[in-house]
Amino acid sequence: MTTATHEALAEKLDAALPQTQCTRCGYPRCKAYARALANGGADIDQCPPGGDATIRLLARLLGVEPKPLDPAFGKHEPRRRAVIDESRCIGCRKCIDACPVDAIVGARKWMHTVIAAQCSGCELCVPPCPVDCIDLVAVPPATSDGPWPEYARGETDVWRIRTAARAARLVRPRTQPRVKTEPSTRRDQSIRAIPTPETIRAEIAAAVARVRRRRSSSSG
Asked: How many whole angstroms from its chain centre is CA 5?
């Protein structure tokens, strides 16, 4: 298999993954798992969020028989998302640093909050929280236009884009200027699904208001 053919297969396999970026497959990103699948270094039964739907799709792309999800990588569970109890948040930034899709906003020593529409439910923000102020709540399945019953293609495309952008940002020297590129039609459509600054500000304002109401009721 040529390098170009291998990469083309990896792209197709990556598109078959739900892009939660949870690392439960044993790889740091969905794209890394897809590349391992393409070169025969991983099996099709390692994605708990994707469950049987993803296994069937991966099997078809690789020309192999489907198999049950390997319990060593976890079990398929109903979709959830992270919620921060702002009254207990100490602003340590550990959850922000852990989030692969930049769904958490806040500043050091200031309250953080999760942009609900952007959270992939990867759960990576929970272990590093030193004050245990992050809960996981059930999320109704999205109106699916993809192979998964719980995820919409549009949101998985956004998670892929945001993860790649974050990875590029983390390795880019601070002095290196950003290069603007023209998005493809599909990427352009996915970017439109990213919350606007107004939406983010509204969610932060709502979070602040909740904290103030709790503090007011407790002091009364």
From this structure: 27
Question: Rounded CA gap, 101 and 163, in Å?
Answer: 5
Provide Rg for the chain, Cα atoms: 19
- Residues 6 or more apart from 108 whose CB is under 8 A from it? 91, 92, 93
Write down the pTM of the prediction. Answer: 0.77
3-class DSSP state of 169: helix
At 129, list the tokens.
Answer: 């929280």
Helix (H) or strand (E) holding 164: helix 153-171
Planar angle of CA 137, 142, 145, nearest 5 degrees: 155
CATH class of 3-73: mainly alpha
Domain ranges of the chain: 3-73
**Token output for 162:** 């945001």
Q: pLDDT, tens digit, for every residue of 100-112?
A: 999 999 888 888 9
pLDDT tens digits along 15-44: 999 999 999 999 999 999 999 999 999 999
